[in-house]
Design brief:
This protein is of the alpha+beta class and 733 residues long. The chain contains 15 helices and 35 strands. The model has no long low-confidence stretch (mean pLDDT 95).
């Protein structure tokens, strides 16, 4: 069957077999050639079975390209072509043993103010005799502002897999000058797939200014991928393989000790954060949202990080913690035998404006999330939390069994009648809830030692099998699902659960933005390694980012001593490394007021309050459109206990990578950090008083690491991942 083609593809299909190769590179593993066509330069990859994949490095509508330079060197090929409208500079880096992937960068310099009303996709696949391949299997492609990734397999005939990454960071000048965005550019419909430039309507490119219009990295594999687990594991491996080659800026250090202090003060004292009802204080979900009743998730979402921070600080008592704990029992409904979402005393305030803003209507994930946090409190020795948890757990199990561990979106709590079955037609319900439910059940097993809870966890995660990337519905729940699956592997020895945890992790990393959005308002904050809260969300969200960070930090703790996929170690460590560098941007005092929404959906935004806004939007849009989320106030309190270590009353050390082991003796501390040995993180020493310190750091080989003084109260050095290092200090006179 001949696939349908656009006029552009028809022209390409017609000319490609006839084109002469202007450059050829071959070795035992790769067979590549560059072919010059009428409207562009093609890179053709020849598969071992004769199938061909062709990449268009650019598209010139005028065409009739004239070469001014074709230079082939050992490690790169440079080709410069001119047409009536522009000059095109192509740098192609063929695969090597150390970097087994193809790279090219195309830079356009136009001769006139140039509009780009149309740009085709840049990948076509052919049979051995140059006919368009009729079928291919697209595993995943870019959605919104997520990474510019396309991952697909050639299955008829069985050929292999292509992992394509478009480095959208390099295209920011194009996006800025044409007032376009980097969203939804990589994907397409078979057979015309890949990347295409966003079309320009009225904003032209500036003459004589160079613009990168393609910056691609492509990895090829002949592996046969038969199951969703194999597809997702391959995805993680390929992403980790190309990651060191991705253009990225080093994370910027921010003093989270200072941010935490400001956040505590703002949260405790700002009237817009609190509601008083029935003798207790409750946090609002959003600043100055007094119309919506208090929610159980909001209280616990802030309480847990606050407790972690207090434990790290050595506080014996904390008024805000006690205030939040005191209000929790009021969310228990004895007639239903469970904790409920809305404070029953104020439930009558619900305005029915949304499906969930009605009495006794439950969003499926929302039932289990507060119980998971009550379980965490129980594991910290909180007897009142344990009582609420044990009184609610039978209802939680009843709901799971009633839906056969396949949860809808909304249901009625008393009758369990389904109100909304699917997120969208044919998409199913909240597909990752089995994972968060399993997390709760495993915690119940750890608390009670009753195996029935472990059995419940196993039953639930059966519903995750075969979902692949569709496992991901909501980022934080998917992350806790990955953690639950890892624990099931540790408790049962069944490697199936470890592989399933990789599927959940692939869902998370498939919903990450691995590029900097340096246009419009995006110039004011970093986006590299941002995670989106939902599979189709147009913005990133503070609370979900913080929860994913916490869950993946715990995943690495649980994975110590296990032979897990190297790609997982690299990607989680890099995600953790970038979190403290990015999420300070959710705090309004660090953002220009002009980029904040003037009319948030809920409540108000106080630009001087150190409480996170919910949403960071595309650079063309104002942020904070949803509101200033009080339940995201735990961001800072979650970072400090995981990345900062107190050495004495004066010294605190920040480590960018996850710390797997920490041992302090006298004036020396030894750290074992995660990550990949090819990459590195920043280590910062904060000095809190007027004393001067002499500090030294050595790696596992005994080599001295260079420490740089930033100022009198701060020093720093870098250390490579996956190793031990020793830090020593002494006071100087």
């Amino acid at each position: 069957m001949t696939p349908s083609l656009s006029a552009w593809a028809v022209q390409a299909v017609g000319e490609l077999p006839t084109l002469e190769a202007v450059a050829i590179t071959k070795n035992m593993d790769f067979d590549l050639e560059a072919r010059l066509g009428k409207h562009g330069l093609w890179i053709v990859y020849h598969w071992p079975n004769g199938i061909k994949t062709a990449f268009s490095t650019f598209f010139s509508a005028v065409g009739d390209l004239i070469p001014s330079q074709i230079k082939q060197e050992k490690d790169k090929i440079t080709i410069i072509l001119s047409s009536l409208e522009a000059t095109y500079h192509l740098l192609m880096i063929p695969p090597t043993t150390n970097e087994p992937f193809l790279r090219w960068t195309t830079t356009l310099t136009c001769k006139v103010p140039l509009l780009v009303p149309f740009a085709p996709k840049d990948i076509l696949n052919f049979t051995s005799y140059w006919k368009p391949l009729a079928t291919g299997k697209l595993h995943t492609q870019q959605v919104g502002n997520r990474s510019g990734i396309l991952f697909y397999s050639l299955t008829k005939p069985a050929t292999g897999n292509v992992f394509y990454f478009q480095n959208l960071s390099s295209l920011n000048a194009y996006f800025e000058d044409t007032e376009t965005t980097g969203g939804d550019l990589v994907g397409g419909n078979w057979p015309e797939i890949g990347f295409s430039l966003p079309p320009t309507d009225t904003q032209a490119l500036t003459p004589n200014k160079p613009y990168v219009i393609s910056d691609a990295i492509v990895s090829f594999s002949t592996d046969t991928l038969k199951t969703d687990r194999e597809v997702c594991e391959h995805y993680l491996t390929q992403l980790a393989n190309i990651y060191p080659a991705i253009k990225r800026e080093e994370p910027v250090y921010h003093n989270w000790l200072d941010i935490s202090d400001k956040g505590l003060t703002g949260l405790a004292n700002h009237a817009g954060c609190w509601t008083f009802a029935d003798g207790n204080h409750y946090l609002n979900a959003y600043v100055s949202d007094y119309d919506t009743p208090p929610e159980i998730m909001v209280q616990l979402a802030v309480l847990l990080p606050l407790i972690e921070y207090a434990e790290w600080s050595g506080e014996k008592s904390n008024e805000m913690i006690e205030r939040l704990k005191a209000g929790l029992p009021a969310f228990y409904r004895k007639d239903m035998g469970t904790m409920v979402r809305w404070l029953p005393k104020l439930e009558k305030q619900l305005d029915h404006s949304e499906e969930q803003k009605k009495p006794n209507v439950m969003d499926s994930w929302y039932l289990y999330h507060p119980l998971m946090n009550l379980a965490r409190l129980t594991q910290k020795g909180d007897k009142d939390a344990k009582d609420l948890l044990l009184k609610s757990i039978d209802y939680a199990i009843k709901v799971a069994r009633a839906f056969d561990y396949q949860w809808p979106v909304f249901y009625q709590m008393e009758t369990l009648k389904i109100i909304k079955a699917e997120t969208a037609e044919g998409e199913g319900g909240e597909l990752d809830v089995p994972g968060s439910y399993a997390d709760l059940m495993i915690k119940m097993w750890e608390i009670t030692k009753e195996r029935k809870y472990l059995t419940e966890a196993k039953r639930a995660v059966k519903q995750l099998e075969g979902l692949g990337f569709k496992t991901f519905y909501q980022a934080n729940n998917t992350a806790y699902g990955a953690l639950a699956l890892l624990k099931l592997f540790k408790n049962t020895g069944d490697k199936k659960y470890l592989k399933m945890s990789y599927v959940s992790l692939a869902g998370i990393f498939n919903n990450i933005q691995l590029w900097e959005m340096d246009y419009g308002h995006g110039k004011n904050f970093s986006t590299f390694f941002s995670v989106f809260p939902l599979k189709d969300a147009p913005y990133t969200a503070a609370y979900e980012e913080q929860e994913v960070y916490a869950a993946l930090s715990e995943y690495m703790i649980e994975a110590q001593g296990l032979n897990i996929l190297p790609a997982v170690r690299l990607l989680i460590a890099e995600f953790i490394k970038y979190i403290p560098s990015r999420i300070q941007a959710y705090y309004p005092p660090l953002l220009p007021k002009e980029m904040l929404s003037e009319e948030p959906k809920t409540g108000e935004i106080d630009p001087n309050l150190w409480v996170a806004i919910e949403d960071l939007q595309d650079g063309k849009e104002p942020s904070g459109q949803v509101g200033q989320e009080v339940y995201g106030a735990g961001v800072a309190f979650g970072i400090v206990p995981r990345q900062y270590f107190k050495l004495n009353s004066d010294l605190t050390i920040f480590i960018g990578y996850p710390v797997e082991k920490y041992k302090k003796k006298g004036s020396a501390a030894e750290f074992k950090i995660g990550g990949d040995a090819r990459l590195s993180c920043r280590v910062v020493i904060e000095i809190s008083n007027e004393h001067n310190y002499n500090c030294t750091a050595t790696n596992a080989n005994g080599e001295q690491l260079k420490i740089v003084s930033i100022n009198r109260k701060r020093q720093e050095f870098r250390v490579n991942g996956s190793q031990n290092f020793i830090f020593k200090w002494s006071k100087t006179k």
